[in-house]
Recover the amino acids of this structure.
């Protein structure tokens, strides 16, 4: 059985404003009805694949668990990184965790890739298994169809003899950084250079053996982080102090570029890492004018443009080769060939202390979600949705009072020593400093409008006494 290891800890800045730090691109539904994470999990479902092992962070832990459960591919466990240390330590920790139950072949998958031809992907994986079983570290190279300067490349060497696999494997001659246009054109013509997909396959023991030689300090730190880690339901928290000692290196730099055991299997599977809005335009279905349109839009003489709206009507006139993305609280307009520069905007938002780099108005929680409708001086209005059977924490606020109006469903409420049941069109007031709890005892979503008033309305003004999800802050 192959153990899929899904890496899902990214911050998602390159697809801002749709992707945010608290809701990065792997959770986006990009024209297929499922999130990129769900598509990743489903392409490694079925015979020959074990339940996935995921690696994420504390902030996204409930999102990843919910998305995998919703897709029918719940994780065997979600490893939680206490801090981001890049892909090297993430993969090392996953392999060490797998080895607790014995050696296995692991397939390393970024959570945010698009693969159009799943059959070709699986054929490539099957070919890679033959090499992995001999102790090789397999990477999958994408046959380039154009001289792309935004991807790293892998140069293939000699063909591996004695292998019956198809597609064949080649010894890795070297990894190449993102080239300039002229160099990229040469790579395409050579026929022996492939885009670096960031997907890997190897025995867990083989990877750890190479790590012991090439990056022993990373291996030791990750070993201590796994040995000192703790289970929390479907999650496994890596020991923070040890994990933070691991060098923050990508697996390419830590191992793959330096090992003599590397093998590249070339595949043609309609792959994209969806690294920018222009990349998303490339892989999406287009209309007769070359436009990709998602959401409410009216266009006049618009060609080869990506337009997406999460709410407001977008009207476009005379546009060509553009990206227009509108959410409830932000709009991005950029030429397609400069869309990757959106990271500079995100950095400016961070420096200005603005929240738009981090959160949407719609914020997901393990019990449901809330959406900010209006925010002003000393007041905030939210729409709150609580899933059936779910409950918020027993809590209090030091700086705000709250008014709740039930608009759909039934609310079970604790307020001080009182226990109440509210139905549609009923309301309640929660005074400042009162212990309170909101729960949904019904079988349908509970929807209510919350009006907060007070001197401070930040989400950190919550003192939790009890919580079903292990949160303390």
């Amino acid at each position: 059985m192959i153990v899929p290891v899904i890496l899902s800890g990214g911050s998602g800045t390159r697809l801002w404003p749709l992707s945010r730090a608290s809701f990065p691109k792997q959770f986006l539904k990009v024209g297929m009805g499922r999130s990129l994470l769900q598509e990743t999990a489903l392409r490694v479902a079925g015979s020959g694949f074990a339940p996935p092992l995921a690696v994420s962070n504390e902030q996204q832990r409930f999102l990843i668990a919910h998305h995998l459960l919703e897709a029918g591919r719940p994780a065997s466990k979600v490893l939680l990184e206490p801090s981001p240390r890049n892909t090297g330590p993430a993969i090392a920790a996953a392999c060490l965790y797998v080895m607790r139950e014995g050696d296995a072949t692991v397939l390393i998958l970024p959570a945010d890739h698009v693969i159009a031809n799943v059959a070709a992907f699986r054929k490539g994986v099957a070919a890679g298994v033959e090499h992995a079983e001999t102790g090789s570290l397999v990477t999958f190279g994408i046959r380039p169809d154009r001289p792309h300067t935004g991807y790293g490349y892998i140069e293939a060497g000699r063909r591996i003899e004695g292998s019956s696999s198809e597609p064949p494997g080649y010894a890795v001659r070297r990894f190449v950084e993102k080239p300039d246009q002229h160099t990229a054109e040469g790579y395409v013509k050579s026929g022996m250079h492939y885009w670096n997909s960031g997907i890997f396959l190897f025995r867990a023991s083989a990877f750890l053996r190479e790590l012991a030689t090439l990056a022993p300090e990373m291996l030791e730190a990750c070993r201590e982080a796994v040995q000192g880690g703790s289970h929390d339901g479907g999650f496994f928290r890596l020991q923070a102090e040890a994990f933070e000692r691991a060098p923050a290196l990508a697996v390419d730099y830590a191992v793959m570029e330096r090992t003599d055991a590397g093998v590249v299997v070339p595949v043609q599977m309609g792959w994209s890492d969806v690294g920018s809005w222009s990349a998303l335009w490339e892989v999406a279905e287009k209309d007769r004018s070359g436009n990709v349109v998602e959401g409410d839009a009216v266009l006049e003489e618009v060609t080869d443009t990506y337009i997406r709206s999460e709410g407001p009507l977008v009207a476009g006139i005379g546009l060509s080769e553009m990206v227009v993305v509108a959410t409830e609280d932000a709009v991005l307009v950029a030429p397609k060939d400069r869309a990757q520069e959106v990271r500079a905007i995100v950095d400016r938002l961070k420096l200005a202390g603005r929240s738009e780099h981090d959160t949407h108005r719609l914020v997901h929680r393990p019990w449901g979600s809330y959406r900010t409708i209006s925010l002003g001086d000393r007041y905030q209005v939210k729409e709150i949705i609580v899933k059936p059977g779910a409950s918020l924490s027993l809590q209090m606020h030091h700086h705000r009072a709250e008014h709740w109006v039930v608009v759909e469903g039934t609310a079970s409420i604790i307020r001080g020593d009182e226990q109440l049941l509210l139905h549609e069109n009923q309301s309640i007031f929660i005074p400042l400093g009162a212990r309170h709890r909101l729960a949904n005892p019904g079988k349908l979503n509970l929807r209510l409008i919350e009006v907060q008033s007070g001197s401070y309305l930040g989400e950190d003004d919550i003192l939790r006494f009890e919580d079903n999800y292990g949160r303390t802050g």
